[in-house]
Amino acid sequence: MEAAVLFVMVLGLLFLGVPIAISLGLSSVIAIAFFSSDSISSVALQLFTASQNYTLLAIPFFILASAFMSTGGVARRIIRFAIACVGHVRGGLAIAAVFSCMLFAALSGSSPATVVAIGTIAIAGMRQVGYTKEFAAGVIANAGTLGILIPPSIVMVVYAAATDVSVGRMFLAGVIPGLVAGLMLMIAIYVNARIKNMPKQPFAGMGEILSSAGEAAFGLLLIVIILGGIYAGIFTPTEAAAVAAVYAFLIAVFIYRDMGPLKEHPWYTADTGRKAIAGFKALTLTLFVFVCAPFAIAWLILCAILTNVGIEFGPEIRIAIAGIIQIITLLMALFLYPLWYEKLEAKDLPEAFWGGLKIWGRNLWLILVYFLPGCFHSDTKKVLTDAAKTTIMLMFIIVNALLFAHVLTSERIPQAITDWMIGVGFNWFTFLIAVNILLLIGGQFMEPSGLLLIVAPVVFPIGIELGVDPIHLGIIMVVNMEIGMITPPIGLNLFVTSGITGMSLFRVVRAAAPFVAILLVFLVMVTYIPVLSTWLPYSLMGPEIVTRH
């Protein structure tokens, strides 16, 4: 009886147009006041407890990092790199748009942010070379959903907070499904492009690939900072989010300079000599390799993976080889790059390095002078304000949803549903079908985080009872949220795509439909091939341990 009243109140308020946070909170308060043995003071206690959740502290920092990355010109550089890599194949510009969305997803953790940042540039580019507006919109609307599947993902943080599973394992679990989903979209675009003879770009050459990679490197380094820092044990996911927010601010304002007081101060001017520019780039690349050690870290990660499959190197050998790799990479960056790529002669190197040092000195002085003005610049204030608005909205939903989850738990509603499902013969296979149907329908009408916070406390204990892996269940729910973002009437990505293209919502829905079918096939794969979600996190971090209450 109590369960029926609670769900009827929530659904009734939602259909009346009441905001989701108020619907969940008001229904929970009424249920506690009239149907529960809990004291009404438990409402205040639960709201306070929910707001003190350490895991949820990652959300505002990830939102802030995403806001700086969206504003700071990172998307434009990522798109240039993606086009250089895959633009020469048939349908390459559309494939590059998907590739760009995958890369930006690993920076932002948000689907709408990915659609806006990549779609604003990529759709216009596709239209210029002959793609139809509908095709371009359909590609971006669907590829943008990867923002919540490829880690770091705000929705994954919400699931981890609601079910008390590891954020680190959830992030790792999203890597392989995210790559598979992106690859499936790319294959579909390529097949369609071959059939319809869609345009392709001329091959840009290795020089353009390396140049665009260098330009995008500081933005893409955020992926290494977040995931590398978490899995190297340097910091927790929440601390990683805070570091990411600070790094994104520094990159947007002082490195890329697409916003803030240094917008009119490029790193070097048109009259700077070629040798000085070459020396500056060589020194910058060397500094990047020295600080980040990308190839040495890649070697150590490979060693960790090989250890899990029984191939093990001693710690001395691992460190020694990593050191050799780092020294070789540094020498290549400092000497081979200017000699081979910049076409300098050996006798020009001292002059080039001196010119590069002067460029660095001038820019370090500018950064020092403009650091405090950059912190209080109008562009910075606007990004902080926008991020704060998004954070307040999302956290208000989450806190009320966690109060709703408390009512469900205190009234033992999930246990009652579990007993009923087992009694009528449900097993893990049929249970996952029911979960997918429920989430696909709910996703058409509700925002992902809110829906997940309503459904997860109910289905999680049932899934555990039926033997469903908690991390696998989380990825299934995230993929359902993905599809919900591109299905009418409330699919958020549809509205965002409509806004940036000027197309009607109906035209965007029709354009996205063929790609939605691909994601539905992907959902079936994720649901019934658990190893896609569980192999990587359990290989590197071990299985998730769930304590049954």
Describe the structure.
With 549 residues, the protein is mostly helical. It has a domain at 269-370. It is 77% helix and 0% strand. α5 (74-86) crosses α12 (206-231), α10 (167-173) crosses α25 and α20 (428-443) runs parallel beside α22 (470-484). It is globular, with a radius of gyration of 25 Å. It starts with a helix and ends in an 8-residue tail after the last helix.
Short description:
Helix 8 packs antiparallel against helix 23. With 549 residues, the protein is mainly α. It has a domain at 269-370.
Question: What does the secondary structure layout of this molecule look like, with pairings?
Answer:
Blueprint: H1 2-15, H2 20-35, H3 41-51, H4 58-71, H5 74-86, H6 92-108, H7 111-128, H8 133-143, H9 154-163, H10 167-173, H11 175-196, H12 206-231, H13 237-255, H14 274-292, H15 294-308, H16 315-341, H17 349-375, H18 378-410, H19 413-423, H20 428-443, H21 448-465, H22 470-484, H23 492-501, H24 505-528, H25 531-541
Mean pLDDT: 86
Low-pLDDT parts are none
Q: Work out the helix count.
A: 25
Structural class, from helix and strand content?
Answer: mainly alpha
What fraction, in percent, of the residue positions are helical?
Answer: over 70%
Helix and strand run: HHHHHHHHHHHHHHHHHHHHHHHHH
Strand residue percentage: under 5%
Largest sheet: none
**Compute the gyration radius: what is it?**
25 Å
DSSP, total strands: 0
Shape: globular
Distance between the termini: 23 Å
